[in-house]
Every structure is written in C-alpha cells, then in structure tokens.
Design goal:
The relative contact order is 0.16. About 25% of the residues lie in helices and about 30% in strands. The longest helix is centred in the N-terminal third of the chain and has 16 residues, at about 50-65. By secondary structure, the chain is α/β, with parallel strands linked by helices. It has helices spanning about 50-65, 75-85, 90, 105-110, 130, 135-140, 140-150, 180-185, 195-205, 255-265, 315-325, 350, and strands at about 1-5, 10, 15, 20, 30-35, 65-70, 95-100, 110-115, 120-125, 155-165, 170, 175-180, 210-215, 230-235, 240-245, 275-280, 285, 290, 300, 305-310, 330-335, 350-355.
Length: about 350
C-alpha cells in the first residue's frame, strides 16, 4: 500500500500476519518526543547545570510543537526546572516518568516505532552502551518501564537478542533504510552474525524493502562507531543531507570525500539519483586535547520545526541552517547551542527519540 505526504511516498510492508507496517521517516507526523534527563550520577555531573539548561531549552522547543515524555529518576527536580521556563500550556504537554537511568541518549536506547494498522509497533532492541563501552543495563530497561506503566501504548515487540541503536539507522519513508557498516559490523554488537544476516534481520524487523550501507565516514571522538545521524540524514523529495569536508588538512577529509562519492552512486527505490545537499563541517571543537564529534547532521525533526545544533561558529551555523531550511521548507528552524552536549560526544539528535503518530 502507498500513501503520500508532500513529495514523499511511504511504503507499507506486510508482516507474516498480513498486517501493514512501515518505519516512517522522521518528518512524518509525531505524537511525542522522548528525552532522558541528565542527573548527578551520569557523566554530566561535572557540568550538570549547563547541560540541564540545554535540556530545558530542548523541552521548551519541543513543547511549543508537540508532547514531551521525560524519563528520569528525579521527576520532581525536572519539573522544578521546567516550571521556570515553560508556560502552563507547555507543561500540560509534558509526561514525567520515574525510572533509573545510566545516561541520557534517548535516540539509542529508545523505542524504534513502526506505524501500521490499528496501533504502533514498539520495537525494543538491546542497547549495550555502543558495543559494551559504557554501562547500559538501566537504560536498556527504560522502554519496558515506559510500556508497562502505559506511558506509551502499542504492540510491544521484544528484540533484546539484537543490538540496534536508533542513531544507526535512517528511513527515507519509501522502503529504504540507510546504515553504516562501521557501526553495525563493529565489535560487541551482533557477532557472529554476518553483514548478510544482519541485513536480513533489519529488513524483517523494520519492514524495509532494502538496506543501503554507507562504508565511509566517521568523526573523531565518536563513541558510536560511526552512527549515520552524525554523517547522513534523509529528507523529503528523495533528499540526503550529508557532511562535506573541504579542508584537505582536516583528518576527516579523505573519509568524508569517499563517503560523498559513494552517496553519488546511490539510487532511489525507483532508480533515480538522490538529491544531495552538503552540510558544512564545523571548525574543530576540542575538550582539552581531544577533538569532539561536532556535526550539523545531528538535527532533530519535530512537528512543524527542525531543531539544529550550533557551535558558536556564526558562518558555519548560518550555512547549516540555510541547507536544513532548503531541505525542510516551511518548518521553523530552531538553533540550540550544542557545545555542552558535544562534550559527551553527542549532539541534539542523540538526545531525543520521536514517537510517530499512527
């Protein structure tokens, strides 16, 4: 079955029971966004006030457009922060759910949601701290807690035997899922499964017609082994936004040039080239001697708006906004300073997970 949204065609696949499901693109209408809030027992402890201020700013932007779900062990503390910034009508859109957490990266421990007949399908994959690099047992249990307590509703599907992070996949809404070979084939994810076996599972679980693998591109300081949401993003009208590095002296130049050349070879599901829109590469951002994985690809699409990271670089920040605006015309553009977020090697998209409206 096909249905259209603007110039996008969404492809719904049938599961073994004959039900129609699809992995919608991020720009499809959403029912809510999830944040998992920082606290003093996370890696944010040394600059907790700074990161809390960023999360309040994100919550403000989200609740101007849609509902917000917050997972936190400290709901009273979070509410007190939100009450200082949000209006009563915005606060009415917030659901606070108390549960223990290791960290804050909702994109990677959150549900991956399919839409289809009757109710959403909530896919709960294993989150293991990006290949067992960091503790993740509490974060891996958040989805189950949200479901059991009826914070989110739908058909729960347990995939705890398969590691998959939301930041590692992108859907174009037309039956194609993009991912990176660096991440999905990285150690301590799903060995001893082969690339072919992983691809087959992705197609089955995500109701996808095909998987496109990107074989190049990874940012210094990236703990995720090359999540696609730091490199390449999908947009309506068969558009791919991607990070382009033009400085031959930059350590990323070679890999990102190879990635760009590979993107030029990709074809849509009906055989046409993708429209490619390059995003600028931020000037290097450091924490001491360590380069951080700053990227403009890590933007978040919400109902009626796009929230994009800024890095205190006026020219690059403005060019990133221009390109994102070209890809998503008619949406409000909301820039949020991400210099604090990137200190923990992520950015805005990593912090949020959407629940598409069924």
């Amino acid at each position: 079955m096909l249905f259209t949204d603007g110039c996008s065609i969404f492809v719904q696949q049938y599961d073994d029971m004959g039900n129609k499901y699809s992995l919608p693109p991020e720009w499809a209408e959403q029912s809510a966004i999830q944040l998992t809030w920082p606290h003093g027992n996370t890696d944010w402890r040394e600059y907790l006030d700074d990161i809390n201020a960023v999360y309040v700013e994100m919550a403000d932007a989200i609740t101007r457009h849609e509902h917000l779900i917050v997972a936190t062990p400290e709901p009273e503390n979070v509410l007190a922060q939100l009450e200082k910034r949000l209006t009563e009508s915005q606060l009415a859109k917030v659901t606070l759910h108390k549960c223990p957490t290791n960290d804050t990266w909702a994109r990677d421990h959150g549900f991956i949601t399919l839409t289809g007949d009757g109710q959403p399908r909530l896919l709960d994959f294993r989150f293991n701290g990006w290949g067992e690099k960091f503790p993740a047992d509490l974060d891996n249990a958040i989805n189950r807690s949200l479901y059991i307590n009826k914070v989110v509703c739908g058909e729960y599907e347990n995939h705890d035997d398969f590691v998959l992070e939301g930041g590692s996949i992108e859907s174009d809404g037309r039956g194609t899922v993009f991912t990176t070979s660096q991440c999905l084939l990285a150690p301590h994810r799903n060995q001893p499964l082969t690339r072919t076996e992983i691809e087959q599972r992705l197609k089955e679980y995500l109701c996808a017609e095909r998987i496109i693998w990107i074989d190049h591109g990874r940012l210094e300081g990236d703990d995720t082994d090359g999540h696609i949401d730091t490199l390449v993003r999908t947009a309506p009208c068969d558009t791919l936004l991607y990070i382009r590095c033009t400085d031959e002296r930059d350590s990323h130049y070679g890999e990102l040039r190879l990635m760009e050349e590979q993107l030029k070879t990709f074809k849509t599901i009906d055989g046409r080239p993708y429209r490619l829109l390059p995003l600028p590469m931020p000037h290097p951002v450091y924490d001491g001697d360590d380069r951080l994985p700053a990227t403009y690809a890590n933007f978040v699409i919400i109902n009626g708006a796009v929230i994009y990271p800024t890095y205190g670089q006026p020219d690059n920040d403005a060019e990133a906004a221009r390109v994102i605006g070209e890809a998503f015309p008619g949406r409000e553009l909301i820039g949020i300073d991400s210099l604090t977020v990137v200190r923990q090697h992520g950015s805005l998209h990593c912090c949020m997970m959407q629940f598409p409206k069924n």
